[in-house]
Every structure is written in C-alpha cells, then in structure tokens.
Design brief:
Number of strands: 3
CATH class: Alpha Beta
Strand order of the largest sheet: 1-3-2
CATH superfamily: Alpha-D-phosphohexomutase, C-terminal domain
Order of helices and strands: EHEEH
Helix content: 40-55%
Shape: elongated
Structural class: alpha+beta
Low-confidence stretches: none
Mean pLDDT: 90
C-alpha cells in the first residue's frame, strides 16, 4: 500500500510516559477509518515510532493529522497527571 509514507519518532523522558501515549494511541491503529492508509505504532523503551503509509497524499495527510491530534492530547494529559 505504500505510495506515500510518513514516520515520526518521539523520545520521552522515561518509559512510563512513552507507555501512556502508546496505550492512548494503540486502540486507534488499524481501525475501520483507515481505508486508504495503514499505520504501525511501536514502542522501544522511551521511544515511540509512528509509521503511516497511504495510497494518496490526501489520505496520508488525514491520517497524520488524526494521529498528531491524538498524540498532542496524550501529551496534554501527561502534563496534568
């Protein structure tokens, strides 16, 4: 499916923070909304890696925007905790 792709690596202060964000994003991966794109999320200690591939630019942009919003909300929640 890879015509266009995007990869984000984020390094957190500790593995627990990375785990919180991973658990927040993970339920959204591979949902029914991903018809023209596919996403892989992985965690390696303090590092999260989000890889998105899509058939076209619009699908890639839509997926990236969705995951970045969720990522941002997760970071805001970490600040409150």
């Amino acid at each position: 499916m890879e015509a266009f792709s995007f990869k984000l690596s984020a390094v957190f202060e500790n593995p627990q923070a990375a785990s919180v964000v991973f658990e927040a994003l993970h339920p959204e991966i591979g949902g029914r909304h991903e018809k023209r794109s596919s996403t892989i999320l992985s965690r390696h200690g303090e590092t999260l890696v989000l890889s998105v591939s899509a058939l076209d630019k619009k699908a890639l942009r839509a997926s990236i925007n969705s995951y970045l919003k969720l990522f941002d909300l997760s970071l805001l929640a970490l600040e409150v905790i």
